[in-house]
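Quick question about two entries, pasted in order.
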Amino acid sequence: MTRGRKPGFQMTDEHRVKIQNSNILNALVEHVEGKREMSATQVSAGLGLLRKVMPDLSSAELKSEVVHRYVARVPEKAENAKSWQEQHAPKPMTH
């Protein structure tokens, strides 16, 4: 089994960028964990570079549509005002 890359291998620019971005992220994580000293300028620059290549999830917009279906029961048409009042009068409470 041969290890490593074949002679003439060319890494794509996309792959190089991913490696560079992961190095930036690793440096920032190490700084937060207290394993690496970084100046405020370095931290600010690292965060700026990451913002250019990683999505900012806090500003992601979510659009969705929710459909509610229901059945409305329409009362029978009343013949006159008195029958309408009887139909819609509050029901007496029973205990």
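Here is the second entry:
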Amino acid sequence: MNGTRSKHGAAVAGFSPATLDAFFALAHAGNLPGGVDILTGEAGREATGTRVRFTLRVAGDCVVEARFQAYGCPHTLAVANWIAGVLPGRRLEALVPGTPAEWAGRFEVPAPKLGRLLVIEDALRDCVAKWRGGDHGRAVRRTMAP
């Protein structure tokens, strides 16, 4: 955290420019309307400080569109936003883009927050499990309440 400013002009102690840029943009936040081509994966609990849900539109074995919803710190939202942005075009066998350790390096996530990145990984792995199980469009839509 070198004290440089994000492209949004923000400089906040404890957050890298990459984290701030992704956090302030959140271009991939939200949900996708239900349908047979939609699957949802989620993990975590608000009561423990981190909850993440990815909603994916898939065609065959490829992600067409991705959105996320999250409850957590700016690092959590920034990493989830970045991941949702890189998922389109990815196939089931390569859905998870890297490892939580790699994401931590990219966004300069402090060691005490690494568990939050594991929640993000768990939400992605939930997507993979549902995709393999053919669970498209069957997920119950609900809010991010605990």
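Reply: The two ends are 33 Å apart (CA to CA). The chain has one domain: 17-132. Hope that helps.
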